[in-house]
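Lab notebook page, bench 4
Experiment: in silico fold of construct C2
Operator: M.H.
Input chain length: 88 residues
Purpose: comparison with the prior construct
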Amino acid sequence: MTTGASILERIIEPQRGGFSNEHARYVLSLDFSPEERAHYAELAQKVQDGVLTGEEETELSEFIAANALQTILQSKARISLKKHHPAA
């Protein structure tokens, strides 16, 4: 099955690296705020409890998509830095 994340992975090709050191470090600095993380966890708990509303389901899907994109980009950033500094 093809997912949005797998399509992004094919486009971004994280295994190839390719970011400059500056861009790689910037991408690695991107993260959810503590408040957003707490809200994400709250939505995930509501899924497990079976009490998620339709609006919350949409919001959780957006969190999941954003997290997938962040993971793919940060993987590419880490590989990019290793290619620039193999001993690191």
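Observations: Residues 4-84 form one domain. The CA atoms of residues 5 and 11 lie 10 Å apart.
Next step: discuss at group meeting.
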